[in-house]
Structures are given as structure tokens and as C-alpha cells.
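Review form for a predicted model. The reviewer records the input and the model, then writes brief findings.
Reviewer: anonymous (R2)
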Amino acid sequence: MKYRRFPPTSSAQLRGYTLLELITVIALTGILLGVASPWLQQWLWRLQVEAVVQSWSADLQTARLQALRSGQAMRLQRLNHCQIPPLANGDWRCGWQLQKVGGNNALLVLNNALAGEVLVQMSPAHNSLDINAMGEPVAGGLRLVVQAKRSPTASLGRVICINIAGRLRVMAGNTCT
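Model under review:
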């Protein structure tokens, strides 16, 4: 068997990038990140707000379905444990839990904890939302305002409107019309 020798590589073939080329690429990358950063930050805030809105709406629908299936009242209750100072009434930024209410005790069905990065405020101020055995919210005319905590504009916020009949409507901003 005959082995073939490759020609030795010359210094011209091992040439890499010059310092000027690397500095140019790093500078262009920095400029692009600087231009895209505000847009990216707003996109992340909007993503956080939308995730909370979808989660709260889905949990309310789950509570309504569970109440219809079991014939037992349900409760969407806010969590209190994420903040050292006590939360104001109607402040749901810690998250919520879904409970099956019956007799003297409440059975936990699901728990949805938030890190407090999103402001979640119910108006009028309620710390729980009861759903009767027929799957209808007991209190109507509520709104749940969800906004990014560090957002410079209120336009990134969403509001969940619950009318007296229990229908949900999600709107941009922080008011129900």
C-alpha cells in the first residue's frame, strides 16, 4: 500500500481574519443590536402580557367547565405569597389558583403562580372570582387589566372584560368600552 503525502501548507493558506475585519464585524453587530433592542424589549413585554391574559382566560374557562361537569361551585382565588408587603385588594400579580368549593373546605384544582413581572389588577377590587355550579361567574361587570411592569407605554397592556352574563372579551389598553 502506498501512502500519499500531502504538500505542506504554506503560511498563505493558513491566513485568518485581520483585526480590522473583526472590529468591523463587532461594530456592525453592536449597531444592529442597538437599533433592534427597543423593538425586541417591547416584543418581550407584549409576549409576557399576552401569556398572562391567555392563561387567566383559560383558567376561568376551566373553572366554568369544571363547575358544569361536577355541579359544584368553583373559585378563582388570587395568590398572596410573592410580595413581602401585603398586596392591595384586586392585585393579582402573584398569580391565582383554582379551587373547588364545597362544604367547609376548598379543594385545590390548579395553581398558576406569577413572578410579579406583570401587573394584574382587577377592578372593582376583588381577591376572588366565584363561579356557581352552573358555570356562571357570580360577579359581573369586572375588568382585569394586565400590563408589563417595566413597560414605558400603556398601549402594551390588555384588559379582560367580563360582562354581567359572564362573557369574556379581551381588548387592547386598560378600559372596557
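Findings: The two ends are 87 Å apart (CA to CA).
Further findings: The chain has one domain: 20-172.
Recommendation: see findings above.
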